[in-house]
Amino acid sequence: CYLRLSQVDHLDLSKGILLGLDDDNVAHFALDVSHEPDSLIEPMLNGAEFVDIRKLGPQVELKQGSIAALARGLCFWHATHRFCGRCGHENNMVEAGHSRLCENQTCQHQTFPRTDPAVIMIVTKTFSDGVERCLLGRQASWPEGVFSTLAGFVDPGETLEQAVAREVMEEAGVAVTDIQYIASQPWPFPSSIMFGFMATAVSEDIQVDKDELDDARWFSRAELNEFGQWHEQGSHLKLTRQDSISRFLVEHWRNL
Predict the structure, then answer these.
(1) Are 205 and 145 part of one and the same domain?
(2) 102 is in which domain, residue-wise?
(3) Within this chain, do residues 125 and 212 fall inside the same structural domain, yes or no?
(4) Is there a single domain that holds both residue 135 and residue 238?
């Protein structure tokens, strides 16, 4: 939630992270209060409570969601980079929270928030019966019945397109061609950006790597029309959250 300076001036504001200026030229900051005692936090909330911002995604407008994602990503980065990766000395927050500087005078290594690139792709193929289908998979840890587009992190030295082909082959044993970029989505949980692609499968055969996926299947548009939603209970098949790039790619293909 947004609080005025007068509502938080009893906290350590030296750890505030500048998020930018709004249209009225008012500065907005993020402040990680996860380590503060409840006695200091609860009076400020006025009955409100903290929730995972991923649960609010579909309910907030794009601008507010982007601000929340930036705040969450930077707070997590600071919490997990307290010490210098070169010499082990403590890092200090600098540049209004957008960098950390090693306090060791013989090192003074400066670090910046990182974003890990990942690819996520909807793979399609027209079968011998003339019906076009898409390839979706699921991990055992996901809610029951949920299927999603395949995804994975980009390895050092490879292009995004190479990562698409490699991940699909590793996870499902399917070779792909005609790889096309569609859209991207920041995913600061903790620090990724998802690059969305479409690709065409060379064959219909699937060989699931059980270390990567619990299951992978081909689905037609008609079959996807019978899918439920992420939050629904039960063993029936479901699509991912409506605010995810996976769902965006599925809907993009369904509407072609």
Answers:
(1) yes
(2) 83-113
(3) yes
(4) yes
As beta bridge partners, residue 180 has 198
The 3 state secondary structure assigned to 116-163 is: EEEEEEEEEEECCCCCEEEEEEECCCCCCCECECEEEECCCCCCHHHH
Nearest residue to 235 via CA among 138, 122, 134, 133: 138
Query: HSE-up of 65 (CA within 13 Å, CB side)?
Result: 14
> Whole-model pTM?
0.88
pLDDT along the chain (256 residues), means of 10: 84 92 91 86 80 73 85 94 97 97 98 96 98 98 96 98 99 98 93 97 97 97 95 91 95 96
Neighbours of 131 (CB within 10 A): 13
Structure tokens at 158: 């490879």
Vertex 126, ends 122 and 132: CA angle to 5°?
Answer: 65
137 and 247 within one domain = yes
Residue at 55: amino acid letter:
K
Helix, strand, coil percent content, the chain, rounded in steps of 5: 30, 30, 45
